[in-house]
Design a protein that fits this description.
By secondary structure, the chain is an alpha+beta fold. 42% of the residues lie in helices and 9% in strands. It is built from 37 helices and 18 strands. Strands 1, 6, 7, 8, 9 and 10 form a six-stranded antiparallel β-sheet that branches. It has a four-stranded antiparallel β-sheet with strand order 2-3-4-5, with no helix packed on it. Helix 27 (625-637) runs parallel beside helix 29 and helix 34 runs antiparallel to helix 35.
Length: 808
């Protein structure tokens, strides 16, 4: 199982909480200022919901009983005598080989003294007796020899783990291509071809972004305990079983062994549930389930509805892109109490939901028609061997009538060709880590027409590369007599959001509140609304906060990030006592700057509990500098200044180039009236990172507060110049110019920025007001009307247009 290759500057996701910008970092017009009246509508609702525990089935299944929670891990070998068939299937599987001690039986690579050179760095692979070594550049930039302790994965590539000081286990970024030589394998390869990575870079094999303890361990071994010491910045990571064993999916087995040795186990135990047998999780969703095929449509229907997502949640622990927010998960516990999964967000997925970055399977599958119909992972995959349950199209035609679907009249390709395979069109592959093709589990209908209209990829042109998307769309239309529709119907709304088109907020809000859409789509729509404040956003978020699904409740909270802190309490306070941890923590994050509005003792107590959970989660992840920044920001919002400063300083020690730590620390000093110290921190950052636009921008704001307007304009100009893709930098520079009496130059800056960002609210608002202030009424009205056309439901824009029309 190949691990994800860390990448520099990969997009932030819902599964990776970025450090928020400092409060003074944005000086744009506030589009939420008018929302206070709307809050009156929800106060009564909020009071009715106050301190509820769970809105419906907030968790997939309840926490385990005290007896089950006391169960201990016993190891997969203890399962073999009774479950021989399952154990034999597991042996040799990628789960069983996910991580192993490096021995002559487990190491696949050539350690016979062979050398591999890339970008001027030579790595030599050596073997002495039963031990394996590499000679390469180490953490200090010097050549050294390091012992390989473990193998990591097995196919199509295998990596090798080396233990460094502080308990850090690091995978080499030179890996063994374990494919057959006939397929180009049996060779050493770099995961970063054409890129020289110095030892000071976090992507170097010794760096934090290559750290097994954080990046990899939880999915490659069983019952992993990270055991990170914040003070020493060191690990003492442990596991119960080095590989992904039986108990990784079924939970610790000691109670089950006790039951198996008891007299009860000698009787007929048919019909007993897992708990009765001392087993925490029995993944038996397929037990007694049949799929009936409708002869008229050829489509299957499950004999009984899927009652839980237990099996899917157990698989999601590893087969999802997610962040672990706290330790202690075992199979059977609520997934969202321990993990925060990423949603269908830009950079991770294409607008139509196709996989883009390495997102694994979970969120793709949740948007599929198969998931909606009740399919589980084990309908197609044997969970012990991980092999498909049948060969070729037989996996699909076990449910879908072959006479209707496995025929050229359906797929329009030669029956014996690769294109006739169901997966070729409905589960196209994307290759990651250069040699690892992974199928898209959204199981979608090919849509070349959406390539034409939205620019998303399509599988037809993935094969017919010499043809155009228009040709593919026309061909499909001729085959079926119409454009395909498919199950996924959110691409236009997501694409409108990514293009910042007028009406995007309304389209996303419609998705977010539609019961016809999959949960993951609704949650993703809410998360995307966070940067589009409007009336429809507020209403969609309000509805989402009371949804029975915790993923939607969490996303609804995220949509309220733009709401001024003082207006959050009525909406957010009830979620402090939600049944699911990710929701409680997000509620605490939103209310941290608004604790003064929590008047009732019960509300303050609920906040304290949720805040403590949030703090514990960030401390669990304190091996990451960005989490130290997040915790520092949380402390700053609570007024715990000393603790906030300590976290920011810790982040800078761990990663001296952590920009957010410099900016947020400077803002902490600003809030205390220590502007000189704020300036000094930012200049320290610029000494290390002289081309960083965020630091120049923050310094410009600091200088402006100190009354040094000319210097401030220069810093803000530099920020806008360095990052033209960031409209707020151009906006701040234009505001500084306008404040300094250079109105014409300010307008020119705005017009230039609008060429790149034609739908940015702040740029358009400033352009209208600057023209108005210059007495240029016609130009001001034109800009205001453009603003209103882009944001048709924005009352501030409407009022600006009315006032300008009245003044003509």
């Amino acid at each position: 199982m190949a691990r994800r290759k860390p990448r520099r500057n990969r997009p932030r996701t819902g599964a990776e909480r970025p450090a928020p910008p400092p409060p003074s970092g944005r000086v744009g017009a506030r589009r939420w200022v008018w929302a206070g009246a709307a809050l009156i509508v929800v106060v009564a609702i909020g009071a009715a919901l106050l301190f509820r525990r769970g809105a419906g089935p907030g968790s997939e299944h309840a926490e385990q009983t005290p007896e089950a929670a006391n169960a201990e891990f016993v190891g997969s070998q203890r399962c073999a005598s009774c479950h021989e068939e399952q154990f034999d299937g597991w042996m040799g599987s990628q789960h069983q080989q996910a991580m192993q001690v490096a021995t002559e039986k487990t190491v696949l690579g050539d350690f016979s003294g062979v050398r591999f050179t890339d970008q001027g760095v030579t790595t030599t692979f050596l073997r002495r007796d039963s031990l394996f070594f590499v000679h390469t550049i180490g953490p200090d930039g010097q050549e050294g020899e390091f012992q390989v302790r473990f193998t990591f994965g097995v196919y199509p590539l295998q990596q090798y783990l080396i233990e460094l000081e502080g308990g850090r286990i690091q995978p080499l970024t030179v890996a063994w291509d374990s494919r057959p030589a006939s397929e180009g394998g049996q060779r050493w390869m770099t995961l970063y071809p054409g890129e020289r990575i110095e030892h000071t870079d976090e992507l170097h094999w010794t760096g934090r972004l290559q750290n097994w303890n954080f990046m990899c361990a939880d999915c490659h071994s069983t019952n992993v305990q990270k055991n990170y010491d914040r003070e020493a910045d060191a690990f003492a990571t442990s596991w119960s079983e080095i590989s992904v064993g039986c108990e990784a999916c079924h939970g610790p087995g000691s109670r089950h062994l006790e039951w198996a040795a008891s007299a009860d186990a000698q009787e007929d135990y048919a019909g007993l549930d897992a708990a009765s047998m001392g087993l925490l999780v029995a993944l038996d969703e397929r037990e007694g389930v049949t799929w009936r095929v409708n002869p008229s449509t050829g489509k299957p229907q499950r004999s009984t509805p899927r009652a839980t997502q237990r099996e899917i949640s157990v698989c999601a622990q590893c087969h999802s892109r997610r962040a672990q927010i706290v330790e202690g998960y075992t199979a059977g516990k609520p997934f969202l109490d321990y993990y925060l999964p990423s949603l269908l967000m830009p950079g991770l997925y294409h607008a139509d939901g196709q996989q883009r970055d390495e997102v694994y399977i979970h969120a793709s599958f949740l948007q599929s028609r198969m998931f909606a119909a009740g399919v589980t992972c084990s309908d197609c995959h044997d969970p012990h061997s991980q092999r498909l349950r049948a060969e070729g199209n037989a996996v699909c035609t076990g449910c879908h009538t072959p006479e209707r679907y496995d025929t050229p009249e359906h797929h329009f390709h030669p029956a014996d060709g690769e294109a006739a395979q169901c997966v070729s069109c409905h589960m196209p592959e994307t290759t990651y880590m250069q040699i690892d093709p992974r199928r898209d589990h959204s199981l979608r209908v090919p849509r070349p027409d959406q390539t034409v209209s939205l620019g998303v990829p399509n599988v037809c042109n993935g094969c017919h590369t010499e043809r155009s998307a228009e040709w593919a769309a026309t061909t499909v239309r001729e085959w079926y007599g119409h454009d395909p529709s498919g199950f996924q119907t959110f691409a236009e709304a997501f694409a409108a959001h990514e293009a910042a088109e007028p009406g995007a907020a309304t389209a996303l809000a419609t998705l977010a509140t539609s019961r016809e859409q999959p949960t993951v789509v609704r949650a993703s729509a809410l998360a995307r609304l966070a940067d589009l404040p409007s009336v429809v956003v507020l209403e969609a978020a309000r509805v989402g906060l009371a949804d029975p699904d915790p993923l939607i409740r969490h996303a609804a909270l995220s949509a309220l990030e733009g709401l001024p802190p003082e207006q959050r309490a009525a909406l957010v306070t009830p979620l402090l006592s939600d049944s699911v941890r990710i929701v409680r923590q997000q509620a605490a994050w939103l209310l941290a700057p608004a604790t003064a509005s929590l008047q009732l003792p019960a509300a303050r107590s609920a906040f304290t509990r949720a805040a403590n959970e949030f703090i514990a989660s960030q401390r669990y992840r304190a091996d990451r500098p960005e989490n130290r920044v997040t915790l520092g920001t949380f402390f700053a919002q609570l007024g715990r200044v000393g603790e906030a400063e300590a976290e920011y300083r810790a982040a800078l020690r761990m990663r001296p180039g952590e920009v957010a730590a410099y900016v947020n620390l400077a803002d902490l000093y600003r809030a205390q009236g220590r502007e000189a110290e704020a300036e000094r921190v930012l200049r320290d950052g610029l000494e290390r990172l002289p081309e960083d636009a965020n630091l120049h921008h923050a310094l410009g704001l600091s200088l402006a507060r100190s009354g040094r307007e000319a210097e401030a304009r220069e810093s803000l100009r530099r920020a806008a110049e360095l990052a033209p893709e960031e409209p707020r930098f151009a906006y701040a520079y234009a505001v500084a110019l306008h404040s300094g009496g250079e109105a014409r130059q300010a307008i020119a800056v705005l017009e230039t920025a609008l060429e790149r960002h034609p739908r940015d609210y702040d740029l358009l608002f400033a352009l209208a007001t600057f023209h108005r202030d210059a007495g240029e009424r016609a130009a001001a009205l034109a800009a205001a009307e453009r603003l209103l056309a882009t944001f048709p439901q924005d009352p501030v824009a409407a009022e600006l247009v009315r006032s300008l029309q009245a003044a003509r």
